[in-house]
Amino acid sequence: MKRLLLSLSTLLLIGVAARAEAPITITGGKEDQKNVLVVVPINEKVETTSISAVSLKDADGKVFRAQLAPSRLLSGKGLELHILIPELKAGQTLVLTPKFTPTLKPSAFFAWGVDEGMEVLSYNGLPVVRYFHKTFDPKQYEPKKEIANPTTKPYHHLYAADGKTIVTNSNQGQYPHHRGIYFGFNNISYDGKKADVWHCRASEHTAHEKVLAAEAGALFGRHTLQIAWNGQDGKNFANERRELAVYDLPGGKLIEFQSELTTPLEKVRLDGDPQHAGFHFRANSAMEKNTKETFFIRPDGKGESGKEKNWVPKDKSGPVNLPWNAMSFMLEGKRYTVVYLDHPNNPKEARQSERAYGRIGTYFEYDLTKDKPLKIQYRLWFQEGEPTVEQCAALSQAFVKPVAVK
Q1: pLDDT at res. 406
Q2: Integer CA distances (angstroms), 341 to 77, 220, 243, 281, in order
Q3: Mean pLDDT in residue range 54-71
Q4: Strand ranges in 16-164 using DSSP code E only, listed in sequence order
Q5: Residue 166 pLDDT greater than 80, yes or no
Q6: Which domains does the chain have, with CATH numbers?
Q7: pLDDT in tens, 188-243
Q8: Among 90, 72, 85, which Cα is nearest to 24's?
Q9: What separation in angstroms does the CA of 66 have from each of 15, 308, 311?
């Protein structure tokens, strides 16, 4: 396991404009790197965007996993070629030539399907992610149980490698308002009104409207969603485009979350507290009985089991603006770790939230206006076992400081 984890030392995101089938030159940095994730913008039109239609080889004929897809949500228009480089030596120059061949079929690949009206992403036939969304119904639960209403917000479930264990929470357990991979705020104000799309006690809610795009191929699966943010009166006050992608990498899964929130109003104030606002990961409630076995790994080292560190609203003390934080927990007799990766371009200050019952995230304050949409990007690294501080730091560096490319 240790050797496998060390292979995760670098996941690099590289941007370089390229002609459709022109050679791509990638240059290594000062240190050897493994699992280098390269994303190359394609300037020219390509006849097919089929994810199974990319062949990529170096001068020796070695084949690299690659996938062609429309640009990510926050990257603008066009196409991008995603490439996984298993190993890149320090100072090494690697020249790859892409060929777009519609007849090419990968041996293993992601695929989207629908189960009970909900989108499911699978890899090699096993589910990886399930997008949970139901039509909003304020009467699903009687009064005082509103926070357990399963229809108040869409979110993503994550599966373990076995394709059976659901790692994330639904509307179960002691805290049914914390669900899966989720984004929202509990203290929203606009036009003299209030909204809490985290607890959703007074009929405010977020609602799935449609899938805007979906891709799936040899390297990753991704979809882009349109989600409405509605107030207590049922009227829309903000609109979100949310994108979630899952990459298959040695040792685990890399999840990329991007979102753009806009409003038709003059101003919407987004605020909250560390436990009920921002972007969060919530583990399955079945692990609540093992809270003493949960620990957090932070840039300053591994914490004590069952011990949390949180930003405190009362005196504004506690951790802020951490580039990464990791939660390691036990579920059904197996240890899993999720590494939470923040990006410096996200609003600050980012106030930390940790809960030993299985939740990790951050939140910030923001004034959303017609002219100033909210754009955020995060990553989650999910694996079995426990990574080191150095491995978590490498994941963060790969996210925020890609190597230079000529």
Answers
A1: 52
A2: 25, 19, 16, 11
A3: 87
A4: 24-27, 33-42, 54-57, 65-70, 79-88, 93-100, 110-115, 118-123, 126-132, 155-158
A5: yes
A6: 2-100 (2.60.40.1180), 110-400 (2.70.98)
A7: 999 999 999 999 999 999 999 999 999 999 899 999 999 999 999 999 999 999 99
A8: 85
A9: 15, 40, 41
